[in-house]
Every structure is written in C-alpha cells, then in structure tokens.
Amino acid sequence: MDLRIALEIGALILVASMISREIGVSVAIVEIVLGIIGGNFLKLETTTWITFLASFASIVLTFLAGVEVDPEVLRSKFKESLLIGGFSFAVPFIAAWAFAYWALGWEADAAKIAGVALSTTSLAVVYAVLVETGLTNTATGKVIMAATFVTDFGTAAALSILFIAPTVWLIPFVAASIVLVVLMPRLQPWFFGRYGNRVTEPEIKWVFAALFLLMFLGEKAQSHAVLPAFLLGLVMADSFTRHRTEQQRFRVVAFSLLTPFFFIKAGMNIGLGAVGANFGLIALLFAVKVGAKIGGVYPFARRYLAGDAWYTTLLMSTGLTFGTISTTYGLNAGIITKDQFSVLLTVVILTAVVPTLIAQRFFEPELPAKETGREAYRPEGMLQPEGGGEG
Fold first, then answer.
1. Tens digit of pLDDT for each residue in 315-344?
2. For the chain, what are the domain ranges?
C-alpha cells in the first residue's frame, strides 16, 4: 500500500514540475492543487512517512528561508521590515480574532486560534516563490523575506503566549537552540574546510542533524522548531554565501525531494465536501484575512517598495506552515471542533494559492538583467549564477 502511495505521489510530483514549467506558475502552488486532487479523487491517504517528510520539509524550507535573508538588509531595512512584517501580523490577528468571536460566535479560545492561524505569512510559500523566480537577490525579495520573519515571529510568540503550556523540556529546547545558533556559524568555516567538497555532502548532513535535534526537542517541549530553524539559517547565511555550490546542492535536495511532500500533503488535507458545505464561511474568513493583510501591509509597501507594493502585499497575504500548525494544535488540544478545523485549514491553504497566483500572474517584478551575489534557483530547475557568472 505504501509503495502504491509513493508511486502515485511521485507521479504527481513529476506532473507538477511539468505543469509549472508550461504555465509559469510556482511549482508549490501546482503541488498544492494536485494534492487536493489526489486526496479527493485519487483517494490518497497520509502515512507516517509522508507526515515525517512533510514536517521535515517545512523545517528545511524555513532554514533555507533564513539563509536567504541578508543580515545587512535586515539591519539597513529594519524599519521597513518591522513595519511591513509587524502590521502584517497584528492587523489580521486582531481582525480574524474579533470576527470569529463577535460575528461567528466562536468560543474565546477558538477565536484566538482563528486569529493566530490567519495572521501568518507562509515562509515556505514565499521562499519557494522567490527562489523559483530568481527574486531572492533583489531588494524587494530581501525585504519580503525579512518582513516575513517579523510576521511569523509574532505568530509563533502569540501561539506560545496564549496557549502552549511549557514543560520541563522547554529548557533543553531553548538551550539547544541558543547553542546551535551561537556555535554553528563559528564552526562552519572549520567544518567546510575539513569536510567540504565531498560526494557524501557532510555539510548538508550536519545541518540536517541540527534540524532533527530542534524538531525532537521542540516536540518534547510542546513547541515547534520553525523559529530556531529560521534563526539558524539567518546566522549561517554569510557562510553559505561564501560556499555557493553547497547552497545550490542544499536547494536541489530540498526542492527535488522534500518540499513536494510538504505542499502535496497540505493539499491532501482539504476535503472538497467540507469546503462545499461551509463555502460561505470560508469565503468570509478568506476575505477577512486578505482584506486585513491589504489594510496592514499595502500602505507601508507602497511607501517603501512603491513599484512592487501589490506583489509584496499579496505574498505577505499567504499562509501555510504556521497556519497549519496553529489549526492542528487547536484541534488536538480540543480548542476548536473538527468543522472549525476544516474551515480554518481550507482558508489557510486557499491563502497559499490564491494571493500567490494573482501576484505571479499580474504583479511579478521584472528580474534585473544583471545582479550580483547569490545564485537564483530557476523555475525549470537549473541552478545558474545571476548575470551569467559569479559576481
């Protein structure tokens, strides 16, 4: 049975890449749509190994997203990133919370879960789109990544403060996170020098080992490894920039093997029957989130990224990883019902698809003819230096 599922998902992954190339839409979006088709019409079922790969993929994507945030841009554009990212979190959080509580009559804690779940910006979607389109090197792409970090930091903090009861495992989780964030960048030059440029890729494996440790301790602490994984990527950005080949290989592993399971599994969680039965409610919550994101993000995006204001706003309106985490936590903790879970998860996944599709189709910035810095991951899967060579 597992081999049949693996075969079918493998076929969907291949077809998604082909469709993405033909229609010029992010492969992440195509994979989510094919996941919906697979779950509803092909009767694909989630297995433990799919769940594991999808969970690990979300952490790897988050780490790579951190690698793509230029620390210099984060410092020099701190005001822009803080305002765009801060209001991207706060306005939808308050709007969704208030709407679920006052308009829908949800219980107070259930309304808070709605606020947290719909306040997010998806690191996974934003990073995948920026990498595929080659925009990670641009000023707009770097500010978007930095602002996304601010948004999801707010989401993670809100979920932790409002709900998660700390356990004794929180101490080793925080301690390990601090040790990894402090020591790995300092040990990275030695590690690359000693073990780099080998076919067995020790550089990738030692990052994987660190991420597995964070995932294990995060689960024990009833928390999540997304935030420390992002910080770890952020502090290791300079090292990977100096070793471009390793960064390319890391991307190849992530985008060819891991991330398709994350996006397809997200689509498999959508039941079209539940969507049809609650279509009106889903549409309302979708409008609340996207409307609040526009109200919170667009004024600052127009001020600081005038030419790309709508593109920035729409990408900041996406949600997936933290939205899924928040809704799943709410269901497992008995805070929200299964119907509320289905509604919120559907809205979360719709926000991963619809704003991204509109942004790419109508507002995607033109890639500069020549850039310097890091290589871009092209939609057709080729890793090439910007401007035809190293800069």
1. 999 988 788 888 878 887 789 988 898 899
2. 2-377
Q: Identify the burial level of 21 via C-beta atoms within 10 angstroms of its C-beta, where 0-12 means exposed, 13-18 middle and 19 or more buried.
A: middle
Q: Which two tokens stand for residue 262?
A: 């994350």
129-147 pLDDT, tens per residue?
Answer: 888 888 887 888 889 988 9
Per-residue model confidence as pLDDT tens digits over 32-89 = 889 989 988 988 888 889 989 988 988 888 788 778 776 777 777 889 999 999 999 9
**Which residues, other chains included, contact 257 with Cβ-Cβ below 8 Å and sequence gap of 6+?**
none
Q: How far apart are CA 249 and CA 220, in angstroms?
A: 31
**Helix pair angle (123-133, 139-162), 10° resolution:** 170
Q: How many CB atoms lie within 10 A of CB 244?
A: 15
Length of the chain: 391
* Amino acid at residue number 311: Y
Residue 158 is encoded by which pair of tokens? Answer: 């809100």
- CATH architecture for residues 2-377: Up-down Bundle (1.20)
Cβ atoms of 143 and 80 within 8 Å: the answer is: yes
Count how many Cα atoms sit within 13 Å of the Cα of residue 10 in the half-sphere of its side chain: 6
Question: Left if phi > 0, otherwise alpha if psi is -120 to 50, otherwise beta: which for 381?
Answer: left
How far is 188 from 38, CA to CA, in rounded Å? 41
Q: Beta-carbon neighbour count of residue 164 at 10 Å?
A: 16
Predicted confidence at residue 28, as pLDDT, reads 81
Nearest to 130 by CA among 195, 43, 69: 69
Query: For the CA atoms of 138, 142, 148, 153, what is the dihedral angle to 10 degrees?
Result: 170
pTM above 0.85, yes or no: no
Dihedral class, residue 378 (left if φ above 0, else alpha if ψ from -120 to 50, else beta): beta
